[in-house]
Amino acid sequence: MKEWIKEVITKRYEALSEEAESKGELMTLREQANTYENLLIRALSDETREVLNKWMEIHDQMVSFQKQWLYIKGVQDGSQLVITLERDS
Hints:
The chain has three helices and no strands. It is mainly alpha-helical. It has one domain. The two termini are 26 Å apart.
């Protein structure tokens, strides 16, 4: 895939991600998760807290990568479908 196409797709993905963050259902779930995360963190020792923080950073990166990959694959599949339909008509 050409670099400029990747950049356009990435910008669109980021815009949609920001929009999704403002959705009520997600905000409610995020608030609940933050409450439990804070309870958990307060119950941990400093050393264990550091390990958990590093794990959470890596986990967030993995989830972000997975979402981006799925989004790009969806765009590719949609493009391929349009090309196929145009060819067949």
